[in-house]
Design brief:
Elements: H1 3-17, H2 23-30, H3 35-44, H4 56-73, H5 82-100, H6 120-128, H7 137-153, H8 156-177, H9 181-205, H10 209-215, H11 224-233, H12 235-243, H13 248-256, H14 258-273, H15 284-308, H16 313-319
Length: about 325
């Protein structure tokens, strides 16, 4: 795409960025007395449509759809955004394997993401027929391995580990091949933060070094062997290892609280996106806008869930993510 076309698209994104929620709007939502009051505020701000009125999950799904519709309208090369869809695509693979290996009467419902490059129906058909070669190269072998593992061991966690690592590897390889720096940075950040999450959760549940190394994906900014061994040595060893990396703030968040750590994991990506506010002639601002919208929707989901479960405003505020604007 030419610089001139990106200039037009970025100009549109700059106008759309003014509608992104800032901290004042987030505080307004947190201050609502009930989930219903939050929904009313969101609908007044144009969230959802007539078909989603009063249905929070349908409204959030519709907002994700609107985001992608907006990007498609700009006539940009959509292949740039493929890597952003990998988490949902691999989630659907995991869901299809579990559905295919579960007795029909006890199968879960509403477990798929829509609007993926392989539809949920096609994904399930591929798995049920064991036609793994129909899947992209970065999914096929992991799908076969996870399917066989779940079928023969009934170990759902092992299935998750195989698919989740394949997803991280796919994201990282896409980042390495990408021409745009923002995709490279996105891939590095996503994989590194996921590895840190695995280390923290594994330390809490007493997993072995071997388990962690099987779950983690290699990346440039972390040494997964050192991280796994640190996690086996205790949480202080994790924070000590992170102190010598670009993720030292993550170690500080671990020491603060579990919710502070989860918040840092998402905030780290938003921090990496901040330089895109000053770009004009690249796809970077468009990618940053999509990630900002997804972060915004995730934050609203956290607030709505908190209201639904009767959490205090302070408890909800501790969990919400930083905004892009």
């Amino acid at each position: 795409m030419s610089n001139a076309n990106y200039t037009y698209a970025v100009a549109r994104i700059r106008a759309l960025e003014t509608k992104l929620f800032n901290q004042a709007v987030i505080d307004q939502l947190i201050g609502c007395a009930t989930e219903e009051e939050c929904i009313q505020v969101l609908e007044e701000k144009g969230w959802g449509d007539q078909e989603t009125s009063g249905d929070p999950e349908a409204m959030l799904t519709r907002e994700e759809e609107k985001t992608w519709e907006t990007i498609r309208e700009m006539g940009v090369d959509m292949s740039v955004f493929d890597v952003l869809s990998y988490p949902n695509l691999f989630h659907n693979l995991k869901a299809a394997i579990k559905e295919a290996c579960t007795p029909e009467g006890s199968r879960p419902v509403n477990i798929y993401y829509e609007d993926t490059s392989i539809s949920p129906q096609e994904m399930l058909e591929i798995i049920q027929n064991k036609e793994f070669s129909r899947l992209p190269e970065n999914m096929a072998e992991a799908a076969r391995e996870a399917y066989e593992a779940l079928l023969h061991t009934r170990d759902g966690q092992l299935c998750d580990v195989i698919i989740d690592r394949a997803a991280l590897n796919a994201i990282y390889q896409a980042g390495r091949k990408a021409k745009d720096k923002i995709i490279k940075d996105y891939a590095e950040s996503i994989v590194a933060v996921a590895d840190i999450r695995i280390a923290v959760r594994s330390q809490k549940t007493g997993k072995t070094v071997e388990f962690m190394k099987r779950a983690m994906a290699e990346c440039e900014s972390l040494n997964v062997d050192q991280l796994a061994r640190a996690a086996a040595g205790g949480m202080e060893a994790v924070t000590e290892y992170l102190a010598g990396t670009a993720y030292a703030q993550g170690g500080q968040a671990i020491a603060e609280s579990p919710s502070a750590f989860e918040r840092w994991c998402d905030n780290r990506l938003m921090q990496d996106m901040q330089p895109q506010k000053y770009e004009v002639f690249s796809v970077g601002p468009l990618v940053a806008y999509v990630l900002a919208r997804l972060n915004e929707i995730k934050t609203v989901r956290i607030i709505l869930s908190g209201k639904q479960n009767g959490f205090s405003d302070d408890s909800i505020r501790e969990r919400v993510r930083d905004m892009y604007v």
